[in-house]
Design goal:
66% helix; mainly alpha; Endonuclease III, domain 1
Length: 413
């Protein structure tokens, strides 16, 4: 082996087995550096983290300060007319302002429309009230004008109308007479007392048995009260009526010799006898003229505007002044006939009335002729076509006409 090879071998062997002196120093320095680096890393990391946190905190504080500054600037800008003007120049600001203006305009229009509607409704209500007041005022004025322009009917005109009504009724009810059956003044007096609060038909159905048992005042005055009550029970109020019959019969027996007196003053002194009953007896049993003011008579003379009185005595006095005394009794019969058959209390048959042209109250009832005919009542509640039986003291009297048919023929004569 040469020296060169030996030296090489020595060098190679050193390289393989031990480091070179320079290399070892370098390695040692690197190792120290690495160790120092490893030792300094945790401290640097902590310092880096602290620096990062500080930077983040500063950044957040900066942002917060910037936001606050911006908000302050915006508030200041809102307060400053110049800033406001500047903001209005911005397109976004202009758009927002336009929307706000549009909303305000719409709200104003809606409010105006609502106000207009309210005003219109109020105007209409006021107009209606004004119209109603005007109509009421006009009606009141018209009524006042008519009242001022229409003078009360004179007594002469009223008497003329009463005479014409009486003549017209005489043509239709030429057969008028008292509808109570009787043969002497005593029977008529008793039948009239019984007719209170009931129909003449019911009385006529009751009196035959009564007069058969008690034909004279003396017989009736001696009657047993209970038996008398039982006989007159169908007429109603039989106890008070029996008391009146017993009293007037005893008075006729004791004070008038068993006969019926012929004056109003004497008749009204009898128990149960008033002016109406007295005039029925005087006019039909003695031929003494008098007005019979019953419910039918009073109702009709008021409808004809011949009187406004409701008291029977005052009605009698006013009608007495309108007609001749000779017509009083028959005018009573005709008026009562008319009230029972045509001029009813609730539904007068105006369309079938023979004196419609003379009646100032025409139209209160049914004016259609065909409908009015259906309202006609015949003889004391009888069936249509039933004829009235003439009283025994009117021999040879013609059969009464049928309302609605024979009346027309009678009125045409």
């Amino acid at each position: 082996m040469s020296e060169h090879q030996a030296a090489r071998s020595t060098t190679t062997g050193r390289t393989a087995k031990e480091p070179a002196p320079g290399a070892t120093a370098a390695r040692t320095a690197g190792s120290k550096k690495a160790a120092a680096s490893k030792k300094a890393t945790p401290e640097k990391a902590a310092a880096k983290r602290a620096a990062t946190q500080t930077a983040f905190t500063k950044s957040a504080a900066t942002k917060k300060a910037a936001t606050a500054k911006k908000a302050t600037a915006e508030k200041t800008a809102e307060k400053t007319p110049a800033a406001k003007a500047a903001a209005e120049k911005s397109p976004a600001t202009k758009k927002t302002a336009a929307k706000t203006t549009a909303k305000k305009t719409t709200a104003k229009k809606t409010a105006a429309k609502k106000a207009a509607g309210t005003k219109t409704a109020a105007t209409k209500t006021a107009a209606k009230k004004t119209a109603a007041k005007g109509a009421a005022g006009a009606k009141k004025a018209t009524a006042a004008k008519q009242a001022a322009g229409t003078k009360p009917e004179s007594q002469e005109s009223k008497a003329e109308r009463a005479a014409r009504i009486n003549d017209a009724l005489a043509e239709v009810y030429y057969y008028a007479h008292p509808e109570l059956d009787f043969e002497n003044p005593f029977e008529l007096l008793v039948a009239t007392v019984l007719s209170a609060q009931t129909t003449d038909l019911r009385v006529n159905q009751t009196t035959p048995a009564l007069f058969a048992k008690y034909p004279t005042p003396e017989d009736m005055a001696a009657a047993d009260p209970e038996e008398l009550e039982e006989l007159i029970r169908p007429t109603g109020f039989f106890r008070s009526k029996a008391k009146s019959l017993l009293g007037l019969s005893a008075a006729l027996r004791d004070d008038f010799g068993g006969t019926v007196p012929g004056t109003v003053e004497e008749l009204v002194k009898l128990p149960g006898v008033g002016r109406k009953t007295a005039f029925v007896v005087l006019g039909n049993a003695f031929g003494v003229p008098g007005l019979t003011v019953d419910t039918h008579f009073g109702r009709l003379v008021r409808r004809w505007k011949l009187t406004e009185q409701t008291d029977a005595v005052k009605v009698e006095q006013e009608i007495d002044d309108l007609l001749p005394e000779s017509e009083w009794t028959m005018f009573s019969h005709r008026t009562i006939f008319h009230g029972r058959r045509i001029c009813h209390s609730r539904k007068p048959a105006c369309g079938a009335c023979p004196i419609a042209e003379l009646c100032p109250s025409y139209g209160e009832g049914e004016t259609d002729p065909e409908k009015a005919k259906k309202l006609l009542k015949y003889e004391m509640g009888g069936q249509p076509g039933q004829r009235l039986k003439p009283p025994a003291d009117y021999p040879g009297r013609p059969a009464p006409p049928l309302p609605g048919r024979d009346q027309a023929a009678g009125a045409a004569r």
